[in-house]
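If you are new to this repository, start here. Below is one unmodified record pulled from the training split, so you can see the exact layout before writing a loader.
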Amino acid sequence: MTPAALKHLALSDPIMRRVIRTIGPCTLEPQLRRSPYEALVRAVVYQQLHGRAAAAILGRFIALFGGKAFPRPRTVLAMSTRKMRGAGLSRAKVRAIKDIAKRAAARQIPSRGAALRMTDEELVIKLTAARGVGRWTVEMLLIGTLGRGDILPVDDFGIREGFRVAYGLRKHPRPKAVHAHGERWRPHRTTAAWYLWRVADRAKRVVVAKR
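And here is the target side for that same chain:
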């Protein structure tokens, strides 16, 4: 992220300024060559799972198709549900991935080029029509694939946990409270979100170290 983003966050919010000093430079690097179709499938695999477990399942899913390249939509549609379940995917996730693949094959999931021309809200409306794809999933795509700079996923547990720790709260804030506070971070809320995730990660490591 640009120095301008860090400067804006530091000047607009003293707590965020302290967080930036503690964490250091923002190292967020969007996957700029990944298609929205692939990003959505990956996000569905990762839903409600810890990173390592999800990565293992994703690896087994890709291996079903005989190579390292991410499987194309029609190839996914042809794969049996039994084999996809064998990779560790739940029935709900198999149905979601099949629906995403079906929509991608029908060109109902925009290409990367088309997505870049759409607004954040247009993409949310378009992509949440797919099974298993909610606003959070699209927000992860906007940040991690399209590199949008002003996304704040207020429903994300890590965001609210990082906010709680950074601002010294006893309980997790409501999404509306995080959204309201985040108005001061515009137009660099993605960078702020990245720092809140890092705060949550650091807090988790401290808890584990004390056990």
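Two things worth knowing about this chain: The chain has a mean pLDDT of 93. Residues 61 and 84 are 7 Å apart (CA to CA).
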